[in-house]
Amino acid sequence: MGASPRPERDSYLCMQALLDAGYRVIPVNPIEAGNSILGQHCYESLAAIGQPVDMVDIFRSPEAALGVTLEAIAIGADVVWMQLDIINHQAAELAEAAGLKVVMDRCPKLELEKPYWVAGEG
Question: Which domain holds residue 107?
Answer without folding.
Answer: 10-112
